[in-house]
Fold:
Amino acid sequence: MKSWIIALGAASALTVMAGGQALAAPAKPNRADSNRECVDSPGHVLTICVAADAKGAFYEVSRGKRKVIARSALGLVLKGDGPARADHITGAARATADATWEQPWGEQHFIRDHHNELRVHLAGAKGVRPYDVVVRAFDDGFGFRYDVRAIGSKTPIVITNELTEFRFVGHYDAWWYAAREKERDEYLYHRSPLNDVGLAETPFTIQGDGLYLSVHEAALVDYSSMNLRRVADNAVKADLMPWSDGALVKRTGPFVTPWRTVTIGDHAGALADSRIILNLNEPSKLKDVSYFKPNKYIGIWWEMHLNRSTWGSGPTHGANNANVRKYIDFAAKYHFSGVLVEGWNTGWDGDWTANGDRFNFTQSAPDFDLPALAKYAQSKGVNLIGHNETGGAAENYDNQLDAAMSLYEANGIHAVKTGYVKPNGTIIRTGEDGKPQSEWFAGQYMVRHHAHVGQVAAAHRIAVDAHEPVKDTGLRRTWPNLVSREGARGQEFNAWGRPTNPPEHLSILPFTRLLGGPMDFTPGIFDLTFGHTKVEERVQSTLAVQLAEYVVIYSPVQMAADLPENYEAKRDAFQFILDVPTDWETSKTLAGEIGDYVVVARKQRGGADWFLGAITDEHARSVPISLSFLDPKKHYEAQIYRDGPGADYLTNPYPLVIEKRFVTARDKLTLDLAPGGGQAIRFKALD
Structure:
């Protein structure tokens, strides 16, 4: 392969967006005499500068008069490259955008995309391929990507290094977990000094000196997932998940990389309320998504985690016709729109995590009648939700994918939960030599696989809820049928006792994992102890927290995860789950500190009601909240579900007080949260 160094090349046509209309953008003339080009965010909050010298290309970031990111390297290295780097700027072009776009569903109905763009052309000595760095500056952060065009349309390239750095200025603590560990992204976050970080997953959140920052990526398409490796004091570098042969990324012809993003705010809630990740993704490629509606569902799932039934065949098989009908009847009674059935197909017997190639995605277990149950559910206004656990055997799934999706479409199934339970780094791919190769769960191979699954599903009018997924980078904007993902320690860990999730976990997720996108956490467990006395072997929360999760953790699909009989036993608390929507007009993080507590308010899309969720860590606290987010012209009935007297996640998790009071936007509330506790409120509009 011919040896090249990448160094930014010819600019593309740019556009200005005004009120949603695309206009020709005025391009700034090339300035061959300048080796530094800067762009301000629209409100002049941030300044991002791209420069080059004999040591290579780099960028710097300031927030007002404060330097936030010091000189940080830019660039890519291709296979066969020598030591030369881009050392000068050959020109630049600028554009601005100010447009509002609509999500078909989401945490916010209408999203404003207001940014200034800088495209810098970089070049170097002979043998250094020119390339562009494209920067988009928002008031609450920025993103940049590499645009490599000086490549023949059929020329294969291999990226062996991405030089991208983030050299922070200040004293920071990081919220992180180690990347590329056995259980993928299913680890607890911990707080440490930034300089104690090793190899971390993104979103990677840091706080210190009055600032909160989070590094992530947007539009991860046909590229390897980015981890961050600490390389010096206060400095981390892009570290891409490699292929089994050591290559980081394999492409053919011109390409762009995912956006490298940094969200910046002076309080934790500014991170949670940013829409940068979505704005840096392309508009929807799907013309019709009417087959999916945001919904709440129940399912044959938690009972298996409690060892009351099994995925595999036999006398305790959970996905049998009678049991499924029971769940359908419960869903119909309480107007749930979906019933998830895990273990319905063949392949579950034995060690399915080691033998995922035995799964058949069209063949039902002997005691499960797919067409009959789908028809029965639809007669009651309910739909089955498909389940495709692959055991990490992606090739086996690919080979059956179209047939499987055709079957589900024919039976009126419009949503499928996928799964990839397999130790990280052991996804088997058949290599070019016909021998098995082991790949990472979020390397380029699996990024391509998940994209293929989403596109085939879309062709069959099916939405995908991916578990054990590649992390969310906002692709739900481009492919709205990618409705939700897992990608963190969810509720299932609370059934396993090894140990379960501590209370602080739920106050960390909104400022870390959830910055990437929605999470199918599977909330709503009412039997918090299920026979266990040790707190680390059961759900570590109060009952009120299980209600608050529906507001704090956004997903357009939300499971009522507990057993039907446990909801019947606490019918008064269950009412909040029945009332809370899964689609929102707007969302606001009212208060919070990472790892301590969080308070979120969301307004129902298509309605006037607001809902509030508050969750604290192991410490009791009182949080004053202004209700100024409510419509000042309306009166509301606040339906409050709060921790009762003596509530404590350690000793007495069940006390719950349900009360009502009348409020307006002029009022304030004090949220009294028990240790490991929370509060959920519906503000029902009265006029």
Summary: The radius of gyration is 25 Å. The chain has two domains: 5-279, 295-574.
